[in-house]
Amino acid sequence: MIAADARLAQLAAYPRLPAGNPFLDGLLGGGLLHDILHVVAGPGRWTARLLEALAVSAQAPAGKGGAGCTRVAYVLCDNRFDPYHCTQVARAAGLDPGAALDCIAIARGFNWDQVVEACTRLPGQVAPGTLVVVSGLTDPFDPAGKANFDGLREALHAIGRCFEHEPVYAIASAPVAQGSTFKPRGGHLLYHAAGCIVTVTREDLSATTQAMRYHLVKHPLKGEATATQAIVSPSRKVKKGQDALRSFRTLDDFGTRGE
After folding, report:
1. Distance between CA atoms of residues 52 and 47, nearest Å
2. Residue 211 — φ and ψ, nearest 5°?
3. How many helices (H) and strands (E) does the chain have?
4. For a FRET experiment, which of 21, 187, 199, 218 has its CA 20 to 30 Å from that of 225?
């Protein structure tokens, strides 16, 4: 059994896999570590696009935005996957889009039982140099049922077994837990199984500006930290103006309203 200090030194020395988001990579010290589960909790559409892009960019060579991953085992629990987005990322990374998509083996889970089953099959699909992705791990998870926690424990145990084939990178997305601003849905089981947790929240600052707040909750080599990204979207103001016009049903209404 490897000593804790030696394990931390091993994690620090091994090449990291860039997540592709400068704010997230800044918090992570350059990217994902090998052989620990990273959990990103946040808006489903945002996390889905992050994981899609990572599934492709991970195949690029180390030093060129990737880690030379030769296989991506992708469990899709939230039904969010855009092949066109993947081809865009592949072209930007100088990869062949068709070959990049062929490297991504997708297993879909449309309900909780199927999610658990897909995760338990992961160890048999993993080899050294694999990226494991679980998009929306606890999207279909209902914390009200004890049996569901048994399923989550089984799924997390299977993901942990993937690291027997090191080096393996692993990342999962999840919704933020109800009533919390920093914990992923999944309770103490997910919190303790994850080696790294980052929570991402979105806040409107004005009619045209949003803030994405990144909170590093847990990391084996770093303490808690935060980063904020301001996103200016002029089109959001136009959209609000269009919403105001929807109450006008006819040209007469438009010309006479307010007279």
Report:
1. 9
2. -115, 130
3. 10, 8
4. 187
Taking the model in full, what pTM does it have?
A: 0.86
Nearest to 122, CA basis, from 138, 136, 111, 106:
106
- Give 24-59 pLDDT, tens digit per residue: 999 999 999 999 999 999 999 999 999 999 999 999
* Through-space distance between the first and last CA atoms of the chain, rounded to whole angstroms: 81
Q: How many CA atoms lie within 13 A of 110 on its CB side?
A: 0
The tokens for 10 are 């091993």
Cis peptide, bond prior to residue 167, ω within 30 of zero: yes
- Which phi and psi angles does 224 have, rounded to 5°? -60, 145
Residue whose pair of structure tokens reads 């045209």 in the numeric block: 208
Amino acid at 251: L
β pairing state of 196-204 and 37-41: parallel
Beta bridge partners of 228: 213
Architecture per CATH, domain 4-256, reads as 3-Layer(aba) Sandwich (3.40)
CA atoms within 13 A on the CB side of 153: 6
Beta strands at 209-218 and 225-232: parallel, antiparallel or unpaired? antiparallel
Domain ranges within the chain, ordered by starting residue: 4-256
Question: Are 109 and 77 in contact, with CB atoms under 8 Å apart?
Answer: yes
SS3 8: helix
